[in-house]
From TrEMBL, chain B:
<feature type="active site" description="Schiff-base intermediate with D-ribose 5-phosphate">
    <location>
        <position position="100"/>
    </location>
</feature>
<feature type="binding site">
    <location>
        <position position="43"/>
    </location>
    <ligand>
        <name>D-ribose 5-phosphate</name>
    </ligand>
</feature>
<dbReference type="InterPro" id="IPR013785">
    <property type="entry name" value="Aldolase_TIM"/>
</dbReference>
<dbReference type="GO" id="GO:0008615">
    <property type="term" value="P:pyridoxine biosynthetic process"/>
</dbReference>
<comment type="subunit">
    <text>In the presence of PdxT, forms a dodecamer of heterodimers.</text>
</comment>
<dbReference type="InterPro" id="IPR001852">
    <property type="entry name" value="PdxS/SNZ"/>
</dbReference>
<feature type="binding site">
    <location>
        <position position="184"/>
    </location>
    <ligand>
        <name>D-glyceraldehyde 3-phosphate</name>
    </ligand>
</feature>
<keyword id="KW-0456">Lyase</keyword>
<dbReference type="InterPro" id="IPR033755">
    <property type="entry name" value="PdxS/SNZ_N"/>
</dbReference>
<comment type="function">
    <text>Catalyzes the formation of pyridoxal 5'-phosphate from ribose 5-phosphate (RBP), glyceraldehyde 3-phosphate (G3P) and ammonia. The ammonia is provided by the PdxT subunit. Can also use ribulose 5-phosphate and dihydroxyacetone phosphate as substrates, resulting from enzyme-catalyzed isomerization of RBP and G3P, respectively.</text>
</comment>
<dbReference type="GO" id="GO:0006520">
    <property type="term" value="P:amino acid metabolic process"/>
</dbReference>
<protein>
    <recommendedName>
        <fullName>Pyridoxal 5'-phosphate synthase subunit PdxS</fullName>
        <ecNumber>4.3.3.6</ecNumber>
    </recommendedName>
</protein>
<dbReference type="InterPro" id="IPR011060">
    <property type="entry name" value="RibuloseP-bd_barrel"/>
</dbReference>
<comment type="pathway">
    <text>Cofactor biosynthesis; pyridoxal 5'-phosphate biosynthesis.</text>
</comment>
<dbReference type="GO" id="GO:0036381">
    <property type="term" value="F:pyridoxal 5'-phosphate synthase (glutamine hydrolysing) activity"/>
</dbReference>
<keyword id="KW-0704">Schiff base</keyword>
<feature type="binding site">
    <location>
        <position position="237"/>
    </location>
    <ligand>
        <name>D-ribose 5-phosphate</name>
    </ligand>
</feature>
């Protein structure tokens, strides 16, 4: 939430940041963010409250969505775990990518590093990767925003932006600003 | 997010480089705990229970040899769980796996780190190994969670490197009262230092820091943030969905459930209900609905103070 407020400050706009837990709270949103967490947990809670269904409808109808880490997994069409393999888990299936969960290993292997993200300018962006997933394959119409040796870590597909890392944990507002300005047209 | 970057401790952290990346930074450790927020961590003793926990929506599991309730019953010395069982759990579920080590037992933590657990709980549920010191947690790449009963205790653990705090409560009792007490005390002490900070009374803040035996910088940073600089969960005695919602309402960032689930006779329904109650704690209708799915006659048997042989919360150095 702080990350959004900071981005709104940079853009000089007034933003109401709200937490969405129930389907009716989706009404009237300018954009939605699905942050980090455990994708299995977010997915199953959202499925239960019918939020998942409504959210899918919204994103398909053009609601700008930013998914980070677990959020990226939820948006994806296909996901598998690096150790356990295929796992039945509710997904939105709106982003045409194949994702591998926990690609970099367990928490001791989590890391931060500088990334080159051309749409954010030349200055490197500090990416925080926590038990992070990676994108194995992208479909047509998916623009790659950032890539590292291991694979793709940030993409855009029309109204959707997704990252393996956690922009909400770093103090650099550029990714949120990019999303609000270029994707949500704020 | 500036609040978790870890000022003023960055210099205590060794640099673990891995190619272009850096591992085990304060941000990476505290960020991990951050991702568990509004979730439920469940104690499990084997793969079957871990799978039930994952299916119910647990945000992580904690692997123990015995549930706290059984630790009390068994007596003797409680140690870290069998590594084979922990590894077995890690191979079968996709959510993070935590494990407990004894207070001050640095090498038990080393072996847990070596097999790759996601977080280590330096826990009073096990028999403390050192009556003087806790583990110096900065030297570990794996993040730690520690218990606390007061602001001072929480800050001392953070100063030793804990990336997450939980209230101690009284584990294995099915009685939420001690967790409530500890949480309220931490809140009250936080409000006190916050008021001093807003008044600009640094001299009094310094006296508080001395009383609590922590650095002034950490007290000031905490007062500035108006919260602990790490995620703060509630633990100890949580047995029902309403217990979990109550702790969330008090301001907990999330919940640990120990014996409450697998010592009940409706573990799956209860696990799921506690997850929902934690997430929707601000909607009493939802909590009521999920509380209906558990049966009070199947709740774990409570343990009152008079029949308790020892208090786990009092174990280990202060």
């Amino acid at each position: 939430m702080e990350a959004w407020e900071r981005a709104a400050d940079v853009l000089g706009i007034q933003a109401d940041v709200v937490i969405v837990k129930q389907p009716n709270q989706l009404e009237g949103l300018t954009a939605i963010s699905i942050p980090g967490g455990e994708s299995t947990v977010i997915g199953s809670l959202a499925e239960n409250s019918k939020l998942l269904e409504k959210l899918k409808e919204g994103v398909l109808n053009g609601l700008p969505a930013l998914g980070t880490c677990a959020g990226m997994i939820l948006l994806s069409k296909k996901s598998r775990d690096s150790v356990v393999g295929e796992k039945k888990q509710p997904l939105l299936g709106v982003l045409d990518v194949d994702v591998e969960r926990n690609h970099f290993g367990r928490q001791p292997d989590s890391f931060e590093r500088d990334l080159s993200i051309p749409v954010l300018g030349e200055k490197p962006y500090r990416g925080v990767f926590i038990r992070a997933p990676i994108i194995k394959q992208v479909g047509q119409g998916v623009e790659v925003l950032a890539k590292i040796e291991e694979g793709i870590v940030a993409v855009r597909q029309a109204n959707i932006v997704a990252t393996s890392f956690h922009p909400e944990l770093s103090d650099d507002p550029r990714l949120h600003v990019y999303f609000l300005k270029q994707v949500a047209n704020v | 997010m500036v609040s978790i970057i870890g000022y003023p401790f960055s210099e205590r952290v060794p640099e673990w480089r891995n190619g272009v990346g850096v591992q085990g930074t304060v941000l990476v450790k505290r960020g991990f705990a951050h991702m568990l927020k509004h979730g439920v961590v469940m104690d499990v003793t084997n793969v079957e229970q871990a799978q039930i926990a994952e299916d119910a929506g647990a945000v992580a599991v904690m692997v123990l040899d015995k549930l706290p309730y059984d630790v009390r019953k068994a007596g003797g010395v409680a140690r870290t769980a069998s590594l084979r069982i922990i590894e077995d759990v890690m191979d079968h579920i996709t959510i993070p796996v935590m494990a407990k080590c004894r207070i001050g037992h640095t090498y038990e933590a080393e072996v847990l780190q070596a097999i790759g657990v996601d977080m280590i709980d330096e826990s009073e549920v096990l028999t403390p190994a050192d009556d003087q010191r806790h583990i110096w947690k900065w030297s570990f790449k794996t993040p730690f969670v520690n218990g606390a009963r007061s602001l001072g205790e929480a800050l001392r653990r953070i100063e030793e490197g804990a990336a997450m705090i939980r209230t101690k409560g009284e584990p294995g009792t099915g009685n939420v009262a001690e967790a409530v007490k500890h949480f309220r005390l931490i809140k009250k002490e936080l409000a006190d230092v916050r008021a001093l900070y807003l008044e600009g009374d640094y001299q009094e803040l310094m006296l508080r820091a001395r009383e609590m035996q922590v650095s002034l910088e950490l007290v000031v940073e905490t007062a500035r943030l108006n919260r602990l600089p790490v995620v703060n969960f509630a633990a100890g005695g949580i047995a029902t969905p309403a217990d979990a919602a109550e702790m969330m309402k008090l301001g907990a960032d999330g919940i640990f459930v120990g014996s409450g689930i697998f010592k009940s006779r409706d573990p799956f329904e209860r696990a799921r209900a506690i997850v929902e109650a934690t997430s929707f704690y601000d909607e009493p209708e939802v909590v009521a609905e999920v509380q209906k799915s558990v049966d009070e006659t199947k709740s774990m048997e409570g343990l009152d103070e008079n029949t308790m042989v020892f208090k786990m919360q009092e174990r280990g150095p202060n």
